[in-house]
Amino acid sequence: MRLDLRPILHVPGASAPFSFQLDLSELDFYGVRPFTGPVQVTGQVRNRADALVLTGAAAAVLDLHCDRCLKPFQRELRVPVECLLAEELEDEENDDIVLLDHGEVDLDEVFTTAVVLDMDTTHLCREDCKGVCHRCGADLNEGPCGCKPEVDPRFAALAQLLDKESGH
Q1: Weakest-pLDDT range from 81-95, 105-119, 138-152
Q2: At 121, is the pLDDT very low, low, confident or very high (cuts 50, 70, 90)?
C-alpha cells in the first residue's frame, strides 16, 4: 500500500492514519511459511515541525512447528515500527530514515522489512520444551522415555566394572 503524504508534507500538526492487511503468505523462512493469515497493519504518519514521523504496528498469528518437539503451535506476533520519513537524505549514513517517492511512502516495504527483521530464528512451543529423545523419538515433555542412558565411551570400561560389582 502506498500512502500519499503530499497533503501533510508542509502542514505542521497534520497526520495521515492508515490501516490495511498485508499478505506475507509467500515469505519463506528456511522452508517454512508461518504467515497463513493476513498481517494487520495500523498506524499514522504525523508532521511534527516539518519532520514526518511514522508510528505503527504489524500484528499476526504465526503457524509454527516447535524446533525441539516438532509439534505445531501458534504464536502471536506484534511488531512496533517507528521511523522518520524524508523527501531527500542530507546524510548518506542514516539508515533510520525512509525516503519518500514523489511524496508517497511504500508501507508494504516498511512493514515487511520490520516483520522479517523481527522474526526469531528458533521457535519453541514453550521455553522449557524438552524436545524428543534422539534415539526413540518419544516426546520428553510427556515423561521420560524407556531408553537406557548412554555411557560416554571414555568411561565404558568403568561402567563394565560397576555392572560386574552390582551383579555379585
Answers
A1: 81-95
A2: confident
Q: Give the pairing type, strands 97-99 and 72-86.
A: parallel
Cα–Cα distance for residue pair 104/20, rounded to 1 Å: 16
The C-alpha atoms of residue 127 and residue 156 are separated, in whole angstroms, by 34
Dihedral pair phi/psi, residue 15, rounded to 5°? -145, 160
Q: Based on the number of CB atoms within 10 Å of its own CB, is 150 exposed (0-12), middle (13-18) or buried (19 or more)?
A: exposed
C-alpha cell belonging to residue 148: 537406557
* Residue 54, phi then psi, degrees to nearest 5: -95, 125
Average pLDDT, the chain: 89
Q: Using an 8 Å Cβ cutoff, are 5 and 34 in contact?
A: no
State phi, psi for 73 to the nearest 5 degrees.
Answer: -155, 165
Is 14:6 a contact under the CB 8 Å cutoff?
Answer: no
Choose among 92, 91, 98: nearest CA to 112: 98
User: Which pTM does this prediction carry?
Assistant: 0.79
Q: Which residue did the predictor score with more confidence, 158 or 42?
A: 42
110 band by pLDDT with thresholds 50, 70 and 90: very high
